[in-house]
Design a protein that fits this description.
heterotrimer; A alpha+beta (416); B mainly alpha (294); C mainly alpha (276); A: 416 residues; alpha+beta; D-Maltodextrin-Binding Protein, domain 2; 2 domains; 4-stranded mixed beta sheet; 17 helices; 14 strands; globular; B: 294 residues; mainly alpha; MetI-like fold; 2 strands
Chain lengths: 416, 294, 276
């Protein structure tokens, strides 16, 4: 009934294809949620597993949507892709959905396109700091409030522990050349740094950004508090596993790592603490607005079923399942007051404000290109090829050339 | 007279019929796409803006894009280092395989294996070999009581790592081609040289190398063209990093295609195409191909 | 003689080095696929053998490895057969029929084979997208046919040149058409050459990466090199055991072909490149 006759054969006619990537545990949880949905509605869902690597996820989605393929019907988008997808006309408006229960600021910044709702936040992400409670206690230390404190305590602990474990490092984070590097960088830079949008230009060479980049480089190269593989290999999963093996004191990661660190068989189970990220001295801590948004392809042949699936995923009930299972921070605000969730994830109450105030990255369709430039230059600085300031100057210059090429000044960030 | 000309006509028509599928494939699937790429390169062609003719603006942007220059330099340097290296190694292997010794057949078979392995697979094998914590490369350093190295972590290390991985896969090809050239050199010449008391090295430089010249040029041609478009091994092994240090022109172009920016990507790959085209002309001239095809 | 001794030493040393160079990475791959842990090379890690990785790769539905392998085998076989058939038509015409511009055509074919694939893949993607073929077999088979044609033509021209023209003449006198001559006389005579060309075309298509990366989006048409490149596995950490198990299974068909038909492949490769 809902199909156009062309293209899709019987096998996919009544089936919603949902493309999602992530850590193995997340994919399993999605499979279960989809199974629940099928049980309740009779609509079949096929999970198309994507690599955990977000760049590769983006490439394969763009290639499929640009070709107008009828599947995937539903997909998750990193917050920074929504603008590109919406402006390209690939997202079916989510008519009849009520964005009320979701984080207001996020809906306004990310999910509204020309006045229409085109996506919804499935979960919110903001960077957090994991620490080894047992080790801090042993050395009589407190979790760090500032980046300087983090460095000091890392050095102290690692100097002792390395005698027994040469692979032990103070602090693991995401430094490989990919989007995660940008989110880390923005957090190190704090509230005075980041991408500054001014007069249609994007400024990067700010004092706070320089200090942050020098600090990041020194963590690896000068103080050796972060492993040398930080700028070549470290992504979310590499950092999580490093910490989880017991080889690090601190870890910067997204909240998803919490439930994995605390899972049975994890060497750091019961020894891990979580808190907001440290900040540059005298500033509020800054977390980069991350998270994943769900949308329906305009080319889908099964839009009603796809909408039903989105409704299920973003419902209070569906979100709660995923939150309890994965330790996610739901896109719905109401769940932050849910007693069952708060009992299981007490830290959520504390992190709620982190998400409400998390800083977005520039919401422009060519953000991926801006990010590519910044990633490359920042990664070069971490590798020691160029000086931190030089890297930022070069990135700024390249981004300016990029903006000319796309003939559009950067839209001003809402709330800026 | 009349009959003959009719005969030729029919013959030619049949010949064209035989060639038609080939020509259709080459035109439809290779020449048209290349022409399309050239045409696209003068447009701003991204999914979120209307397609606009912008003349040479993409090329101007490319020439002002340090990332483009970096990948151009990487690509040329990669060709300059890997092709001679692989040819010399290949010649060494070919010289060995050209000798008579027990197990020569088995060795010849072993040489074919790396050639047959997909570059994407060899890329992953080398990614594992270079792995910091447990790769074979660092295990060997440990046996020598040396510090482990972060092989793909520095620009120069990644460059050498990629060259080594590429050499593993492609040296055998050079060796096979050169071996055929070697075995075509008449044994008599060597016998004569021995009678004249020419030494091993003298024989190599006076007989082998000069007679091998045409085959060497063919090998260099194939290897150069291949190295110029290197993609698979980089995509898998380094992803173009660290810091873009191993992004070839092919990878640069692919990145923009897969980001949906077809105009910019097309312009970059047109430049690569131009370089490949010019280089192959030079080689074809050197190798005297047009004379050989009678 | 001293010279000969030196030569012997160089030969034996060279042979050993060559063998190690070619086989050591394969050894790493096989051992990692079969070892319980990827860090088995560390002295303190006990070595335990397992076939779990192989089993996981073959049976886990989420990895889709069997589908990738099936896609690869089908796509490569189909494109090799089509390419070699078309190439043999062309090679027949080029070697047997009087055609104007024959040399120029051979040069053009050679030149086409030197185009960088990336400079056509973008537009090819557009074409395939506009006819709705992205992520289907034809989207790969057609470019693979075009891509392996030049090589196949060159090899077959070299084989066909050696077949005496008297055979054709006999066929013509018997009233056979040109196509019949090709199918009934040339094909059987040149069978070893045709087979070698098929093998090479198959291996080239099997190893192709960029087209497959850009023209397919999931396991319904994606080939195994791309599958391996994007392999993430089910258990978090880069699953080296499973990746290497998949690598072993992937290279098995091509390596077996290479070993069994060593002589033919070498002959084919060199025919394409070396004028004897």
């Amino acid at each position: 009934m809902f199909l156009s006759a062309a293209g899709c054969d019987e096998a996919c006619s009544d089936r919603v294809v949902f493309a999602v990537g992530g850590a193995p545990s997340e994919l399993e949880a999605w499979e279960e949620l989809a199974a629940d949905f099928t049980r309740e509605t009779g609509i079949r869902v096929e999970i198309l597993r994507r690599p955990a690597d977000t760049d590769q996820q983006r490439q394969s989605l763009i290639l499929a949507l640009n070709a107008g393929l009828s599947h995937p019907d539903v997909f998750l988008m990193d917050v920074v892709w929504v603008s590109l997808f919406a402006e390209s006309g690939w997202l079916e408006p989510l008519d009849g959905f009520d964005p009320g229960p979701f984080f207001q600021s996020v809906i306004e910044t990310v999910d509204l396109h020309e006045g229409k709702l085109v996506a919804l936040p499935v979960y919110m992400d903001g960077g957090v700091l994991y620490y080894r409670r047992d080790l801090l206690d042993r050395f009589g230390l407190r979790p760090p409030e500032t980046w300087a404190e983090l460095l000091k305590s890392s050095l102290r602990v690692q100097n002792v522990l390395r005698e027994k474990n040469p692979d032990f490092y103070g602090f693991v984070w995401q430094g490989a050349q990919y989007e995660g590097l940008i989110t880390n960088f923005l957090e190190f830079a704090g509230s005075e740094g980041g991408f500054l949008l001014r007069d249609g230009r994007i400024l990067l060479d700010l004092p706070a950004n320089r200090r942050a980049l020098e600090y990041m480089r020194d963590l690896i190269r000068k103080y050796r508090v972060s492993p040398p593989s930080t700028y070549t290999e470290m992504r979310e999963e590499q950092a999580r596993l490093y910490f989880q093996q017991g080889d690090a004191l601190y870890e910067r990661n997204w909240p998803y790592a919490w439930s994995l660190h605390q899972s049975p068989g994890s060497p750091v189970r019961g020894k891990t603490g979580i808190r907001a990220l440290p900040s540059p001295a005298g500033e509020e801590a800054v977390s980069t607005l991350g998270g994943w948004h769900i949308g329906v392809s305009r080319f889908s042949n099964v839009k009603p079923q796809a909408m039903a699936f989105v409704r299920y995923v973003t419902s209070s009930q569906g979100q709660k399942k995923m939150v309890l299972r994965l330790g996610w921070n739901p896109g719905r605000q109401d769940l932050y007051f849910d007693p069952e969730i708060l009992a299981a994830l007490p830290y959520l109450a504390e992190l709620k404000d982190v998400f409400r105030q998390a800083r977005p990255r520039p919401m422009v369709p060519y953000y991926p290109q801006i990010s590519n430039i910044a990633q490359r230059q920042i990664n070069s600085a971490l590798a020691g090829h160029i000086d931190a300031g030089e890297a930022l100057i070069r990135a700024e210059r390249e981004i300016a050339a990029l903006l000319i090429r796309y003939g559009k000044p950067a839209r001003t960030e809402p709330g800026e | 007279m009349k009959k003959t000309s009719f005969h030729i006509d029919r013959e030619t028509r049949a010949g064209i019929g035989f060639l038609a599928p080939l020509l259709l494939c080459l035109i439809g699937l290779i020449l048209v796409p290349v022409a399309g790429t050239i045409a696209t390169s003068v447009f701003r062609d991204v999914p979120y803006l209307p397609k606009t003719f912008i003349g040479a603006a993409n090329y101007v942007s490319l020439l002002n894009d340090p990332a483009f220059w970096r990948s151009l330099m990487f690509t040329l340097l990669f060709v300059l280092v890997s092709v001679p290296l692989e040819t010399v190694f290949g010649l060494g292997i070919a010289l060995v395989l050209n000798q008579v010794f027990a197990g020569r057949g088995m060795l010849r078979a072993a040489v074919l294996i790396p050639w047959a392995v997909p570059a994407a697979v060899s890329g992953r094998i080398f990614e594992l070999i270079y792995n910091y914590s447990y790769g074979a490369a660092n295990r060997m350093l440990a046996l020598l009581h040396m510090e482990p190295a972060n092989w793909l972590g520095s620009a120069s290390g990644a460059f050498l790592g990629v060259v080594a991985a590429d050499a593993w896969k492609t040296t055998p090809f050079a060796a096979i081609i050169l071996l055929a050239g070697l075995s075509a050199i008449p044994e008599d010449l060597y016998r004569q040289a021995r009678v004249d008391r020419a030494g091993t090295f003298q024989r190599f430089f006076r007989i082998t190398l000069p007679l091998l010249r045409p085959v060497l040029i063919v090998t260099l041609l194939f290897r150069t063209v291949d190295a110029l478009r290197v993609f698979d091994i980089l995509y898998v092994l380094t992803g173009g990093g660290p810091g873009g240090a191993t992004t070839s022109l092919s990878l640069f172009g692919y990145r923009y295609f897969s980001a949906g920016d077809f105009g910019y990507a097309s312009a970059a790959t047109v430049i690569l195409f131009g370089i490949a085209f010019l280089l192959s002309l030079v080689y074809l001239k050197l190798g005297g191909f047009s004379r050989e095809i009678r | 003689m001293k010279e000969d001794r030196l030569g012997k030493i160089l030969t034996v040393g060279g042979a050993i080095l060559t063998a190690v160079f070619c086989l050591a990475p394969i050894g790493v791959m096989v051992l990692t696929a079969l070892a319980g842990r990827p860090d088995f090379l560390r002295p303190e890690v006990p070595l335990a053998w397992t076939v779990d990785h192989l089993r996981a790769v073959l049976t886990s539905e989420a990895i889709h490895f069997p589908e990738y392998l099936r896609n690869s085998l089908l796509v490569s076989a189909a494109s090799a057969v089509v390419a070699v058939f078309l190439a043999s038509l062309a090679a027949y015409a080029l070697t047997r029929m009087s055609l104007p511009g024959r040399g120029a055509l051979l040069l053009l074919i050679l030149a086409v084979s030197m185009f960088p694939p990336v400079s056509l893949v973008g537009y090819l993607y557009r074409i395939m997208a506009s006819i709705g073929w992205i992520n289907t077999y034809p989207a790969l088979i057609l470019p693979y046919v075009a891509w392996t044609l030049p090589l196949s033509v060159w090899i077959l021209v070299s084989y066909f040149t050696r077949i005496p023209r008297d055979l054709d003449r006999a066929g013509l006198i018997d009233g056979c058409s040109r196509l019949q001559i090709l199918l009934k006389i040339i094909f059987p005579t040149a069978a070893p050459g045709i087979f070698a060309t098929l093998l090479l075309a198959f291996i080239f298509a099997f190893n192709e990466f960029l087209f497959a990366l850009m023209l397919t989006t999931d396991y319904s048409a994606r080939t195994v090199p791309v599958g391996i490149a994007l392999f993430q596995g089910l258990h978090g950490q880069t699953p080296w055991g499973e990746i290497m198990a998949a690598a072993c299974l992937t290279i098995l068909p091509v390596v077996l072909l290479a070993l069994f038909f060593q002589r033919r492949i070498v002959q084919g490769l060199t025919r394409g490149a070396v004028k004897e």
